């Protein structure tokens, strides 16, 4: 089972997709200790398989572990957060 990793050089969180050479990714802009999550990309042929949700959960868990906060500008990540308010400690709503 793959895990989500931060790739600061590409400014994205990455989730390798098992059985392929592709990744799903959440792109961000870094602003101090805050990350503005700007978009989520899951290859089309893998949509509907829960990969985006696994990616979102992994991103929020990495942010929590690092003590950083996220500003949600990506509609997918905002929708995931709306369904999972347990991540309120890592989402910065003051910037909205």
Automatic annotation (TrEMBL):
InterPro entries: Acyl_CoA_acyltransferase, Gcn5-rel_NAT, GNAT_YJDJ
Name of a matching Pfam family: Acetyltransf_CG
Domain N-acetyltransferase residue range list: 5-92
Alphabetized SUPFAM superfamilies for the sequence: Acyl-CoA N-acyltransferases (Nat)
Residues in the signal sequence: none
Protein name: GNAT family acetyltransferase
Organism of this sequence: Mesorhizobium robiniae
Phylogenetic classification of the source organism: Bacteria, Pseudomonadati, Pseudomonadota, Alphaproteobacteria, Hyphomicrobiales
